[in-house]
Amino acid sequence: MLMAHPAVLEELLRRYEEIRTKHAEGGDGASRRSLEDVSYTLCVSTGTRDVAAAITAAREQLRRSAVGARETPVTA
Q1: Which of 2, 3, 55, 58 could form an S-S bond across to 9 if both were Cys, CB 3.0 to 4.6 Å?
Q2: Could you tell me the pTM of the whole model?
Q3: Residue 58 belongs to a domain
Q4: Which residues contact 60 (CB under 8 A, 6 or more apart)?
């Protein structure tokens, strides 16, 4: 399965956590909609149907990406 670029996934995860925290601290309708939007985008970007699965998939993709980057030899 093809997923979004790691930088996109990192940004989506960062935004999700930021908005989720703000919403939990007394969010309004706007923060709820923002949370729904970023959750939906995470799901689409990872090919999943719920945000918990999307977060797991995004983190796993980022982990694999980081491992692959460390294992790729640098050529001059």
Answers
A1: 58
A2: 0.83
A3: yes
A4: none
Question: Does residue 76 lie in a domain region?
Answer: no
Tokens found for residue 58: 């995004």
Query: Comparing C-alpha atoms, which of 9, 12, 14 is closest to residue 66?
Result: 9
- Side chain identity at 55, as an amino acid letter? I
Which residue in this structure is represented by tokens 């939906």?
40
Q: What is the pLDDT of residues 22-69, one digit of tens each?
A: 999 998 999 999 999 999 999 999 999 999 999 999 999 999 998 876
Domain count for the chain: 1
CA distance linking residue 9 with residue 75, whole number of Å: 27
Exposed e or buried b for every residue in 24-63, given b needs 16+ CB within 10 A?
A: eeebeeebeebbeebbebbbebbebeebeebbebbeebbe
